């Protein structure tokens, strides 16, 4: 959804370079076949996912129709919303979807009950509530954020659906909740049937991912110390580590309860990030030593971090009964983006209501529902502007396919078996597209809204006019949301980079405060997640600017790690009072001036080395590590001035 989008318009232009010309010339068929490889040559896992999700969607639809529900198309939409490539992802998303649905239904009923005859107050309250949900979701992670935005758009769907019939709002809320729970149950049932060896596969995937990351880190560290690894390589390794870290929660869910594999896996990833940050400092000292400036200390701490990572990986492979290990991971909270996200969603709902109010559009209630739903689906995207473009293109394909089904196929279906076959065909194609990054953005909207636009049911007659109004409301809503993301406080990666740079500088100074509780793992994790997020959205940023920014982030990560170490050393009662006092003076200057305090690093280092005389071995080791940290801080500052 965040990667390259294939532009089809260019392929239709001209008899020589167009689609017809390529079909007539055999030598030109390769590009088209390559772009359609996801459909023509799917892998076994992709095919299993597509068939499994399609069966679950069709099953939920048939059950909803058998229960004589009035809007059975919402059940397969839920299946595609919760359908994920792994069982753990589906479990995580399903439970938060159910929780968000229950709360959203309650809020929807409350809004109708509070403002039954006051449309202005009703829509202002609804817009404010959805804005709060979309903004608050920015502070959460994974599918917890999804659960919050789901609460917002579920309340909008229930409330707007009851505008014409406020006395039936409770029945509408119960119906919507029934559809969603039915879709979740069907998807879960098919996932269990298609993946019988769940725990074994989950543990194998987790170990393969961790062992692969461990070997990659060892290779990159070796290249980094020898001067062969550049910022681009370091950024790619961090991206892989953060991606592996994000998958741990889902693998742990599949492995079942009463296991601390997730804690050990997070700790292993954190140890690998420490290895990278420490190796950067060693590489910097090595480069200075080659210039005849300094003597490189032995990187014994690197092997200690390797051992920690290896121990946690082994703990994932061989669980120990009675293990009580806990590891807490944190990530950066984007306050300004949360406010912008909330304001944008609030503005969108109010603007959509004004459009309905001015035009008197008969399909206005459906339009508002679609607007709220699309805002909720795109609210937690890193860059909603980029995500909205393939979402709109997928919506166009969805409307086109739905029109074919609604006008020609559905009227000819007379048996449930035929309905299953016809829906399975197009849904399987959509499921295959969802597995490929280049087409996942299109499939995101295509899969979810196809059943809604087709609108199969057994309590009403099909109306072409109703279909056209519903499809138009859907397309206008998607276009409307896309333009509001571009016009109202749009996400700009350059602005985000400058804001992150200021945030890093402030946090780096605050690390030296005696009362700071930020650990090394927290500091590295927050900075790594911010850097990876920017790298995923910085395609339009010039490469020199991108590389300079990456160097700044790597420098801050290394500096912060050593500042936290010095802060902890300054609190160690084992050290002589004079050594602790010298470190506290340096840390106080760091808190006041930031990296400029490295001008005092050499003086503080000399003071610590003099304190080693006559001290016990343990104290001498700690003082030597503190002196090395001061030396790395000074080297990082000099490298910043040269870059």
UniProtKB/TrEMBL annotation:
It is a multi-pass membrane protein. One of its GO terms (molecular function) is transmembrane transporter activity. Its main location: membrane. Keywords: Cell membrane, Membrane, Transmembrane, Transmembrane helix, Transport. It is found in: Cell membrane. The chain crosses the membrane at residues 96-114, 120-140, 147-165, 177-195, 334-355, 361-379, 391-409, 415-434, 441-459, 471-489. GO terms for cellular component: plasma membrane. InterPro entries: PHBA_efflux_AaeB/fusaric-R (IPR006726). The keyword Transmembrane helix applies. It holds the Pfam family FUSC. PANTHER family: MULTIDRUG RESISTANCE PROTEIN MDTO (PTHR30509:SF9), P-HYDROXYBENZOIC ACID EFFLUX PUMP SUBUNIT-RELATED (PTHR30509). This is Fusaric acid resistance protein. It comes from Acetobacter persici. The lineage of its organism: Bacteria, Pseudomonadati, Pseudomonadota, Alphaproteobacteria, Acetobacterales.
């Amino acid at each position: 959804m965040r990667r390259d989008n294939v532009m089809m318009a260019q392929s239709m232009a001209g008899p020589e370079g167009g689609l017809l010309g390529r079909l007539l010339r055999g030598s030109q068929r390769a590009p088209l076949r390559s772009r359609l490889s996801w459909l023509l040559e799917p892998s076994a896992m992709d095919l299993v996912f597509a068939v499994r999700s399609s069966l679950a969607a069709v099953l939920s639809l048939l059950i909803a129709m058998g229960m004589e529900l009035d809007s059975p198309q919402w059940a397969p939409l839920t299946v595609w919303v919760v359908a994920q490539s792994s069982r753990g992802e589906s479990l995580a998303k399903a439970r938060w979807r159910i929780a968000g649905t229950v709360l959203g239904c309650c809020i929807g009923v409350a809004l109708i009950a509070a403002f039954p005859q006051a449309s202005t107050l009703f829509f202002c309250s609804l817009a404010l509530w959805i804005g709060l949900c979309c903004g608050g979701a920015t502070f959460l992670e994974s599918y917890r954020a999804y659960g919050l935005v789901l609460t917002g758009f579920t309340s909008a769907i229930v409330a707007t659906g009851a505008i014409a019939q406020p006395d039936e709002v409770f029945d509408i809320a119960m119906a919507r909740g029934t559809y969603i729970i039915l879709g979740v149950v069907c998807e879960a049932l098919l996932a269990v049937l298609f993946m019988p060896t769940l725990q074994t596969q989950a543990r194998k995937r987790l170990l393969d991912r961790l062992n692969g990351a461990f070997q990659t880190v060892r290779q990159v560290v070796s290249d980094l110390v020898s001067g062969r690894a550049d910022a681009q390589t370091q950024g790619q390794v961090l991206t892989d580590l953060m991606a592996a870290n994000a998958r741990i929660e889902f693998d742990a869910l599949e492995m079942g309860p009463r296991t601390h594999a997730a804690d050990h896996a997070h700790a292993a990833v954190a140890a690998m990030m420490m290895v990278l940050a420490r190796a950067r400092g060693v590489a910097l000292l090595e480069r200075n030593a080659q210039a005849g400036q300094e003597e490189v200390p032995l990187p014994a701490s690197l092997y200690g971090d390797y051992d920690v990572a290896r121990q946690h990986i082994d703990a994932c492979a061989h669980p120990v009964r009675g293990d009580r290990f806990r590891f807490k991971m944190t990530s950066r909270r984007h306050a300004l983006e949360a406010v912008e996200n909330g304001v944008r969603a609030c503005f969108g709902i109010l603007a959509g209501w004004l459009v309905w109010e001015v035009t008197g559009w008969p399909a206005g209630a459906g339009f508002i529902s679609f607007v709220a739903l699309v805002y909720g689906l795109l609210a937690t995207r890193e860059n909603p502007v980029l995500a909205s473009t393939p979402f709109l293109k997928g919506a166009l394909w969805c409307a086109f396919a739905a029109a074919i089904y609604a006008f020609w196929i559905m009227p000819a279906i007379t048996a449930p078996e035929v309905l299953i076959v016809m829906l399975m065909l197009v849904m399987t194609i959509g499921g295959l597209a969802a597995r490929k990054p280049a087409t996942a953005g299109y499939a995101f909207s295509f899969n979810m809204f196809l059943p809604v636009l087709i609108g199969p049911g057994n309590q009403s007659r099909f109306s072409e006019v109703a279909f056209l109004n519903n499809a138009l409301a859907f397309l206008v809503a998607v276009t409307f949301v896309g333009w509001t993301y571009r016009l109202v406080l749009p996400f700009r990666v350059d602005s985000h980079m400058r804001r992150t740079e200021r945030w890093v500088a402030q946090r780096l100074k605050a690390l030296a405060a005696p009362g700071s509780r930020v650990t090394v793992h927290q500091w590295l994790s927050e900075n790594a997640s911010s850097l990876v997020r920017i790298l995923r959205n910085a395609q339009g940023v010039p490469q020199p600017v991108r590389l300079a920014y990456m160097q700044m982030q790597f420098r801050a990560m290394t500096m912060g790690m050593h500042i936290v170490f010095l802060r902890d050393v300054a609190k160690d009662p084992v050290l002589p009072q004079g050594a602790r006092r010298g470190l506290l003076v340096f840390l106080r200057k760091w808190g006041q001036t930031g990296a400029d305090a490295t001008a005092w690093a050499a003086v503080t280092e000399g003071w610590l080395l003099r304190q080693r005389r006559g001290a016990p071995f343990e104290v001498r080791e700690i003082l030597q590590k503190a002196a090395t940290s001061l030396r790395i801080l000074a080297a990082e500052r000099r490298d910043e001035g040269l870059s």
